[in-house]
Amino acid sequence: MQDENREEQTPVPGTEPAAPPVQPPAEPEEVVSWYVRPDRAREVQDCYVQPRPMPAAAIPKAEPEKKPHSRRGLWIFLIVLAVLVGTVLGVAVVTALRSGEPSDGGYDGGYDGGEDASSIVDIFGGDIPTIPRADIDPSVRFYCQDAAEEKLTIQQVYAAVNPATVLVVAEMGEKASIGTGVILTEDGYIVTNAHVIADGQSVLVVLADARRYEAELVGFDSAEDLAVLKAVDAEDLPTAVLGDSDECWVGDTVYAIGNPLGVELRGTLTQGIISAIDRRVTMDGKAMTMLQTTAALNNGNSGGPLINEYGQVIGINTMKMSNSIADAEAATVEGLGFAVPTGRAVTVINDILATGAFHGIPSIGVYVMETEQPDGTYRPVIDSVTENFGAEAAGLLPGDVILSADGTAVYSNYDLLRARRAHIVGETITLTVQRDGQTLDVEVYLYPVIEE
Q1: b/e for 369-399, b at 16 or more Cβ within 10 A?
Q2: 225 classed as catalytic
Q3: Does the annotation mark 195 as catalytic?
Q4: pTM for the structure as a whole
Q5: Which domains are seen in the chain, by residue range?
């Protein structure tokens, strides 16, 4: 028996359909995961973000009578960035980047090589970003696409996705947070990690061809560690294709593109495999279902794409595990990177685009079994109906054979999941079911799953 959500769920009280209230964005928190060696008490931890995020307590609080914060640090950074992406890429550029004034918790122009990069860990709860808000466009909706028939070479994958991979620079006063993002539309909708833009006051995105755009914030969810940006006045941008993470298998070859350690190594491509699927990872008491990969991920890759062999984005890179400085003499922790799978991310992104926030994973409220029909096909057949969900209110019953969802034929639980992902909480899905020889169209309101 299969659950149409593939996850445990708790019924939501109340049977009357009502659109859920829009909650203000949760306060962003750094994404952290812990691994404790069985023979040691010390934790091995790393936060897969930009180098040294700034603690909230260290950011000067603006007062009405004070002048606006200086942008001198940001302009210096932009000048250095322009030099980097120009024609002069010699030693002088690297030296200039590393000679900038260091800052406690901010971007210091580069990595000085004094410590192992994987050991740089600063964990602070970020403030709600004050980035200007973009207008919400509920007509924009994303879907996971099937894989193509022909695999691409590694060079073709890079050529297809790197142009749509951007450097994300979130200004925090005189400091900046560095991350990665993925362009999803030609007019500049971009997905990245929520922790990249935490504490941000403004955002700049830089394309591989050196084009630069100011970006506004559409919305974010810190628990899912996803954020959507909109490049201002952008047009004709290269875009990435969202693939379906549910089609992945352990052992599949994958690639990651991003900006490890900040600006100097931007556009870096790494290769690995999918080492685990549906990996439950607990971070700050919150369990997330992630793709696990051996592709090398480092500080600055946050928000970048995890890509399959067809050149499709199947995950948004979020975090890694590695040794801390205190545990430097212990066995090295390698090959433990994690990404939010697109099968889940697309629902979060669509909800943010429609409402500015994420309200949970939508649920039909049924358990189904794939059963062979008289015509030889297999169809999802309702095994049980969950109390207080939309299916019960719509009158669906055990034994109903689900023939289609929103007019598209379904032959498996996977087909039903794909149809449900096209919706957000508060919408309805049209199911065509067969019962006692009759065909019925039923409108099912989608309530949110309450996840443990």
Answers
A1: ebeeeeeeeebbbbeebbeebbbbbbebeee
A2: yes
A3: yes
A4: 0.70
A5: 2-20+361-448 (2.30.42.10), 28-358 (2.40.10.120)
